[in-house]
Amino acid sequence: MADVNQGSVLPSETSPPVLDGLNATDSNGTEAVNATVAKFVATPEGTALAYGSLVFMALLPIFFGALRSVSCGKSKNSSDMPETITGRDAARFPIIASCTLFGLYLFFKIFSQEYINLLLSMYFFVLGILALSHTMSPFMNRIFPANIPIKQYQLLFTQGSGETKEEIVNYEFDTKDMICLVISTVVGVWYVLKKHWIANNLFGLAFALNGVELLHLNNISTGCILLGGLFVYDVFWVFGTNVMVTVAKSFEAPIKLVFPQDLLEKGLGASQFAMLGLGDIVIPGIFIALLLRFDVSLKKNTRTYFYTSFLAYIFGLGLTIWVMHTFKHAQPALLYLVPACIGFPVVVALLKGELTEMFRYEEVSAEDAAAKEDTTEVKKKDK
Question: Which of 40, 55, 356, 380 to pair with 66, CA 20 to 30 A apart?
């Protein structure tokens, strides 16, 4: 993958979901606000609006990312091809995520937070533009006027020459993609200059949707390993140490969705935020997307497992918010999301007698699928 998932919000190898589920609340019911010292007591209306908006925003990339994951493997651009997570990748990911999280914690303790966040802003500026452009592309295809000519472009970067020439980047795009890039660049400049929460959320939603669309689990067992490992990771770093909360408050990057609790009082200039980490969206989201592709493989014109897991996610996230609000303490969302997203579909599969079929379902990577097609073509020519 060459865009959002490589070294970004949820890549295959590097950065973890560094935030806990929702931001911390102290014993007096005041939000521990990101980069803010002053305490703020939210009104019931403001709290309900903030958390309701976070839940709604979390559902958007999961739903549309899952739908797009069904057909994204047909793209001709290498940057749009899905990356398959194997069982070995899933087992290693919590360890890599923990090392990365603790490394960020040490960085913020040793070096100036201002300079680190400046570098991160430029890094996510580039990735955010690519992610948002990729997210907008299908919508632009639908609304683009038919009477405007479309020109094709190709960005080709190779290594070597002659027979040893190797393609490093081969990206094909057209006029519609150029317009998406321009719009995304405007949003990126807005984010870098103002750090406005709306610009942050636009990039965050794009990162999450790209993650759900382009990160594919190869089977249900791998999904259970990944979610189980990150379940332990999330619980340990939230309840066992202050590392995750510290990084969450120091890390100024669009790797979380935020919504102001004082929006009703201050409008768009509000500054007291509730937050939800993108890891708590993408990790369950790629599992839900896998269940949708399993539904499609059954060829029964039903989406039973997809809708079951989708409703389970809503239940788990709602439970997270309720527990956090009741006990006035930051909660690891995966503590509630993982049992719900795995348990509900498994129970449904048991009732339908399809549990064995579910765990036997296997997806192949894009490279393996292409190799299989080439082998089939060679066999046809030999005959």
Answer: 356
